[in-house]
Amino acid sequence: LLNYLQLILGHYHVSYQKLTNKDIPRLPQLREQFTATELNVTMTDYKFEGWLGHSPESVNGKMEWGAFEPKKWTEDDVDIEVSHCGICGSDLHMLRSGWAETPYPCCVGHEIVGKAVRVGKNVKHVSVGDRVGVGAQARSCMQSDCPECSTGRENYCGRANVSTYGSVYPNGEGKSYGGYADYNRTNGHFVIKIPEGLPSEDAAPMLCGGITVFSPLKDNGCGPGKTVGIVGVGGLGHFGVLFAKALGADKVVGISRKASKKDEVLKLGADEYIATDDDKDWAKKNARSIDLIVSTVSSEKMPLQQYLTLLKVNGTYIQVGAPDGGNLPAINAFTLLMNGIKVGGSGIGSPSEIKEMLDLAVEKKVKPWVQKRPMKDANKAIVDMEAGHARYRYVLVNEKHAKL
Fold first, then answer.
1. What pLDDT, on the 0 to 100 scale, is given for residue 122?
2. Domain 49-194+369-397 sits in CATH 3.40.50.620
3. Among 70, 80, 198, which residue's Cα sits nearest to residue 135?
4. Nearest to 177 by CA among 163, 187, 189
5. What is the pLDDT at residue 5?
6. 188: three-class secondary structure by DSSP
7. Range list for CATH 3.90.180.10 in the chain
């Protein structure tokens, strides 16, 4: 009987869950008795295929479409039919091995939205058919004695922090692959239901780009009575402006290099704009004027020392941009000491924070500036992203599963 079941599944490439009791009388018992590994069959009627980078050259528009083996299925997982995936700067860093050596082949993309098509029995908050999303994190240890996981800060877990792509799962479950693909498999704890009223193309880039700035803004007191500066108004920074306003900051100051961007930044909702390349006295003119700065710039040549002089006494500077190699410019200790300045960093956000952010986006009608690109043209899109053409986020649309 087992051989018969294997033959059927192997020939038709379908899930045994689709067979009925009348097809095989003892199927209920077999479901309990045998696991997917023991049956040695593929448990889905869909294929995991996507854009794969095979070397640092892939960042130059040389990804190749191909099949990949997702992590081993567990009853804690969710399979997602990908409809949308945002293009994040992290994707380019990973493709080029900018932060560390990338474990090729790698399918990038960690701003994933789509439909849940398979849900493990241990996942209680998602059902098949739900519109869901995945950000930059796919796993943490999730243990009750973990100081981070037990307090809703899974993004800082130091025991088993698995990224959505380019990481290895514990317990021999395999490698993580991202969302430039037809399907994605991720641990259900990090799969978030997308609320009604938020279009998929808007939700996707919020899952990394949005949460990367929302979390430090919220954690560091952005709100009424505060003046907030956003350094670098690009894909990340434009979310900084949007969410600083949504959180109720009295004044939001966009800080970027060129005066040519001023009109766009003010249209996003900023109240003031500082062009650092076009005004040699910008730091002096704006000294001690800002309560909180969130910097999205990922350049080791940025004028960090001057950014710090913009802070009021007891002000806070948070770095979220990550340069290749991780190096930041030197700063003068006396700037910190004489102004009581706090300097810190922030990395993405937890599942609960992502849910909070998405709910706020619906409530406050946060509307990111996105440009939709066909998934089939992902290579052209990443080249355009690298060249700085995005205004302000590219979102890949998988036309097999959604309309462009």
1. 99
2. no
3. 80
4. 163
5. 38
6. helix
7. 49-194+369-397
CA-CA distance, 43 to 41, in Å (whole number)? 6
Question: Distance between CA atoms of 55 and 52, rounded to whole angstroms?
Answer: 9
pLDDT tens-digit readout, 333-370 = 999 999 999 999 999 999 999 999 999 999 999 999 99
Q: Which residues of the chain have pLDDT under 70?
A: 1-43
List pLDDT tens digits, range 303-319.
999 999 999 999 999 99
The C-alpha angle with vertex 211 and arms to 205 and 215, in degrees rounded to 5, equals 165
C-alpha distances out from residue 168 to 98, 139, 149, Å: 18, 10, 19
What's the CA angle centered on 111, arms 107 and 112, to 5 degrees?
A: 80
What is the CA 178 to chain-centroid distance, rounded? 10
The model's pTM is 0.89
Strands laid side by side in the 272-275 sheet: 272-275, 251-256, 227-231, 290-295, 311-319, 342-345
What pLDDT is stored for residue 324 in this prediction? 84
| Nearest to 229, CA basis, from 240, 242, 214 | 240
Q: What single string gives the DSSP state of each residue in 50-98? A: EEEB-SGGGGGTT-EEEE--PPPP-TTEEEEEEEEEE--HHHHHHHTT-
Chain region(s) in the chain for CATH 3.40.50.720: 207-345
pLDDT at 9: 38
Domain 207-345 listed as CATH 3.40.50.720? yes
